[in-house]
Structures
1.
Amino acid sequence: MSASVLAQALAQVFDPYVLWVILASAAFGLFVGAVPGLTATMATALLVPVTFFMEPVPAIASIVTATAMAIFAGDIPSCLLRMPGTPASAAYTDEAYAMTKKGQGELALGAGLVFSVIGGLFGTAVLIVAAPALAEIALKFSSFEYFWLVALGLLSAVFIAFSNPLKGIVSLLLGLLVASVGLDNPAGFPRFTFGNAELSGGLTLIPIMIGMFAVSEIIRSVSRIDQPWEMAQAKIGNVFRGMWGLTKRYRMPVLRGSALGTAIGVLPGAGADIAAWMSYAVSKKFSREPEKFGTGHVEGIIEAGASNNSALAGAWVPALVFGIPGDSITAIVIGVLYIKGLNPGPSIFMNNAVAIYAIFMVFILANLLMLPLGIAAIKSAKQLLRAPRGVLMPVILLFCIVGSFAINNSIFGVVLMLVFGLVAYLMEENGFPVAPAILGMVLGAMLEEHFIRAMIRADGNFIAFFERPIAAGLGLFTLVVVCVPLIRWMLRSRMRFPGGGTSP
Amino acid sequence: MPGQRFGPAWFPGLVAAGLGICGLLLVVSGAREGGPWIALPEWMHRGWPALGVGSVLAGLLFYVVAADTLGFHITGVLLLTVWTRILGSSWRVALPVAVLASVAIHLSFYKALRIPLPWGVLEGWAF
């Protein structure tokens, strides 16, 4: 990168309008994160209609800032209500609440904030270094490599992240089915359109995502409307007290959490929530005092809190370099990138260098801003959490309607939102993960296109998929990703079911 | 498409085959685990949440059907009032919230972002 690119990027980020957008998105993200039932992905889906009319840099900046803030703010109700503000805090909600009950609420909130910032900056550093380096290699990729990458992404979403791969596969296939609607396939042949003009363009993803991430959450919140939120008392003074000591004492967990979180973020389909679960488990396993976990011990909160924020930035690596989303947030972001003319792919780092470096700077800025704004959010937590759900949910719902309508100015968007909102709710209630479906929708067209293109080049010869060295490596790795968990799962279910069986 | 080995039907066909196999496996594993065929969620037996979820789904359906005729403004205020009332607010909260939120969306989406929200029967008074 040259100095002039850097200077231009700086000028784009430190434009008063962009800074205003970042501040407003930060407040929005903190609010959404702090209120249980509103998630970071939901914040992204709701931001898309608003960012529709912005320049590329402020549009992306608003999503980056809001999601980073939301993942941190999810820790606040964990401490005070024993409810995760976003799924990414669920792994250590009981631990954080136990700390508050012990009178250590201030320490738990402080650790959540400080180690979110450190994790976020770590993930950002990896993004800045790894993405352009990976792009150099990816420039030489042909359809064979892309086909394997997409397949690997889809399959890792199913096999690495979830306990029941069968339900994950069903979810993935449903997503692929949605992706095959319309004219947009290699043959240009109308599929599943039933002569309907709305369907021939394919199903628009943004209303679907608003449905799957916002409407389904609202249904879930409303189904629990009769359960009151009970706030634990916590005296909050200086949240930074003791943080330096914790940083020194838990250097390894912080580093390990950030690194694992970033890696999970890079993996398609698994994002901040899975990163936090895994890091919490790892933390307990390697801790010198594992017996303290679950009784209000700060170590797991530190490691998992760093992990979920680092996963956010990690997810942008495959999203920018290959157009393969690393989590459900970037699944939405990829759509925004295309709308803004920042088509993801290895050449984005040359063709749109200024915008990309501006996005990197926003990542750094957002994570630094999290310190002062996070303190403000913690201080006003009691007021934030008093926002009445019964008023909030209807207003968000109307906002969802207008947002879904706004993408194509068509009522069909609202229909899509309603249908997919209900489908996503039913799927999650029955143990079907939603992330593979989203990934299937986003990547379906790419998978088919690269497969057909590769087949044409290879003249119908499957061996060609393994002839180029990188393609062969990716292909073998894909097979390993599929086979290992499948065999393990079969062995386990055979052991579990011989006589009647128990539920997991 | 004739003469093409991997035509437009190939990919959805593969997906359908996969769904068929997975469906069969799910049925088998479900039968092995036992349990009822359909289990209603527990909140459906509690009046308030059931009414709330019902009103959310019915309200969204109502918007799809009625928005073009009634217009965004009437439908929006109506839905917000009903939803906030059902979810536990008094009229004194529900009505101002409904009107203020609709005005906010009018100003931000219709005016600032120029989304052509339908006016419906209010067409003559559009502003």
2.
Amino acid sequence: MSEATTTKRSSAAVRGWFGRQSLAVRTVVVALVAIGAYLLPYVGSIPVIGPQIETQGIDWPSSLFNMSYYVLLALGLNVVVGFAGLLDLGYVGFFAVGAYATALLTSPDSILHTEWAWLAAVPIALAVTMVAGVILGWPTLRLRGDYLAIVTLGFAEIIRIVATSTDTLRGDRGFSSLPHPPGTLPDGSKIFGVSDATPYYWLGLSVIILVIIGCRNLDRSRVGRSWLAIREDEEAAEIMGVRTIKYKLWAFAIGAFIGGLGGVLFAGNQGFINSQTFILQFSILVLAGVVMGGSGNIAGAILGGALISYIPDRLRGIQDPFFDYDLFEYRFVIFGVVIILIMVLRPQGLIPSRRRAMELKDREKEVAPQ
Amino acid sequence: MSEPHIETPEELDRANARPVDEAAPTGPAEKSSAPAAPAERDGDVLLELDNVTLRFGGVVALNGISFSLRKGEIFGLIGPNGAGKTTCFNAMTGVYRPTSGGIRFNGESLVGKKKHEITRGGIARTFQNVRLFPEMTALENVMVGADAHHKTSVISALFRLPRFWREERSGRERSLELLRFVGIEHRAGEVSRNLSYGEQRRLEIARALATNPTLLCLDEPAAGFNPAEKVDLLNLIRKIRDTGVTVLLIEHDMRLVMGVTDRIVVLEFGKKIAEGTPAEVRDNPAVIAAYLGVPTDAA
């Protein structure tokens, strides 16, 4: 009895202040956070702390846009890894498929010679990414844990190597002159230009908000329950009537779709992609972000995704005092230390999912009973 | 010493024991037809195992098992450890595919069907070692079972279409009702890993019932229970039967089995050694031999 109450109390503490508020308070808080996110490009105007937050070696709106597609990737990976418990190490593959599909349809360098507008290419690119998700998912359905991780790792490498070494995908030369998203201002200038990344950030943020709503809706439905059941005991889930194959494929497809969204946005912003963009460490970084933020939790994935992009960008343009290197060059060292610290001090992630936190707590108990 | 003890019931029940004695040593062909006849006579056959054999490499886990369940009865499957009771369950629920033989449920073959198809077809089960989804609340666990008959698609969940709201509401109500039925409604919001052992067992039954089964298979539901809890469980099993669900019960505790079941099949080393009412089975020399290891004329 007393054990049950203590666990209850600690799980409530983990869920924190937010979970205890009324619906009205939560709505207001969410709205304020969203407005704050839209105003982030102007954070530099806040006296004293503003300039500390802004990046130096890269313009602040560009850094915010980088964060937005990292957050998208983290949200998508969170569906696969966090919700359904399928360890996917090759997630960047879907980002690449989305970006390349856009490039093939829009770039003048493409052998297709379609040269579509960016917006016209988006639905096709996303459909292609979802199909890629199912194609990866199908043969891996019987695999679990480590084996699944190895196969997905291979998938991302296949995409990268194909992109590097086939003529159609143009390797390092890449695709240039990709069109930007449409729209003109009243004064005739384009909304999505090359000089200011702020509109791209707002576009990315709007997509993120839609993705959050979608993920949340799925999580709080039979779909989310099925994923969780699969994660906890796949065989028992199937015996309780869960169509495990169907829901695992959906997890892959939805994850791929969100990753593809990131790729499409990235292509629309950069105007240029080549095979160097989609290296393996990208996948690992996003996975690290999800785990760091709190696997299985949407807010955690957002925070993790934003940090893995923000920390290196913030280090840009700062010289180390000894060798005058740009601190950006040390980003993986610093990053590694940060991740280790977080994992030691807060193994369930920065904003843990209620359930994941308890899983870890139980594991702790198993290691050190009493 | 104990031989005269056994002689008496054996003599008394010679008539009852006879068909069983025949069934054990004879070939599979005879056995398959034997149980079908009385079942048809006494009521509708719900589940029929026809000469089911299951081998794992050289090990014969089930050897030509045949029996049938009638609608509305409580049926016991008993036998010493390793007799093949759980294997029998697993063959029925699609976890293992029988090497040979047929399993029919409501006249439809179950062999080769997927686990979730069998569940949706009306067979639900619990597990010998409780297998709940530990990080889900009690209510969510039951709702996973209720989802088995829901048709909400990923799209309607994503866009919150009317069907989602309708099924989510009805699923929740039904799940709460089932938690009340098994007596743990007050724990609905608690993560299932925090429930007591007895509550977890009850929750498993509620989750299985949520799939709307016509046949509920309980795998040693009383394991680890004290006598008072066992009595409660007996009442629950009867209550479940009274709602029209047929119950198949695997159990070690002979007294519990004898008290609640209408008919019993006894397995030993993957073979059926007896079938009949509790009274018939209790006095069957082959059963006594299997449980106590006493040599008898039959063995």
